Predict the structure.
Amino acid sequence: MSGHFLIINPNTLTTPYPVFPLGLAVVEQTLMNAGYKTRVWDIQISDTTLRDTIAAFRPDYIGISLRNIDNVNSRSPLGYIDNLRELVEDIRKSTAVPVILGGSGFSLFPEEIMSLTRADFGVVGEADVALPALLKVIDQQGDFASVPGVYFRTNDKLHSSPMQPIEPQRIELANYDPCLSHYYGKESTILSVQTQRGCAFRCCYCTYPLIEGREPRSRDMDDVCDDIERALAAGAPYVFMVDSVLNSTSRHLLDLCNKIIRRGLKFPWGGFLRPQFITDELASAAKEAGMKHAELGSDSFSNTMLKSYQKPFTFEQILESQQALDRQKITSCHFIILGGPKETPGTLDETFRNADLLGDSLILPSTGMRIYPRTDLARVAIEEGVITEDQPLIKPTFYLSPKITQEHIDARMKERFDNTDNWIDFQDEELFTTVRETFHKRKIAGPLWEYMSVFKRMAR
């Protein structure tokens, strides 16, 4: 196969910092391996207009990688679908080549987005295998339904084929394009690597199982380290492991750490962890492998709420995990969600009391849960009359427990924001922008949340 494939990254979100488009980088490498000449047009950094790029590159296909549907901020929700529709319309003014949509955002609302944008094709879930297969079928005028996870039209009627997770050995290495890597490495100080796909956990609000499948599939750790070496060669000051849960099993994280150590790779890194079964042995291996930061998906410090959120751990395990990380001096923070199903003033009190047991560890709360289709949260919201069964959820829609008010939660959070340094307003975009500009100018690499408490003390 051969041809020109233009890949568009329309993501304008820069808070808390611009995120390296890893999925796009993997897809680009896949297309290059299949013989396609590729070019990336990134709305944040491209120095030519899209129209001029199309005219100069003369693509045979155009792909759009949609990462975000909205900003997931219940206080000031902002959707991006209208921007995508306008983008497709602009493309149509310049060329009639097939437009193919993909990405995690698209995979959540494929039918709605295909209808709104009138794109030619869409790929849900993993595109590593599906996209080259789709291009071959298009070229040969074959059967679109033979390609897994594809949306297509026949006589203007929308059809789809079931998504099929791929074997981990078929996951391609990422192409850390020098231009993209320079921009995102400079603006965020972080480039990304993925060590596995799929998630077996059943958190009530989460979409990862819908996008990647419910069975975790670990990549070969040598392939992972090859990706790490590529990211470092591209100038990454810091690497973030973007798995939904890096310690899906203790063995997976231990294998990663041991492989990094055996390969002799020296670099700072972090990842998302579940606060469960993080032992001294595991924390010690992570420290030796260079781990600097752990972002803990604690969600709540109330056991009642953890059960409601369908988390597989307790607050006691959160505390044990925190202490194991503290002993190795791995900096950690806790992301929590206030106001989810069954939240009451009593469970909120429990969360705030237990938070005091975590010492100076940073806590980043948000309020309300974004409701996505095909999740248990959507089912609860329908049962409670928060949404109707046929309500479109592509517009930012949030759940708040009817047993507590937003005003009560806001007042309790304000007390902590005003009187402590370790409670950080995660939805304060202005604060994150200020901290990014302050600390990145000092060539400090890694997640910004580590410096939020420092900034708050400086500002007092």
User: Anything to note?
Assistant: Residues 10 and 87 are 8 Å apart (CA to CA). Residues 81-94 form the longest helix (14 residues). The chain has 18 helices and 17 strands.
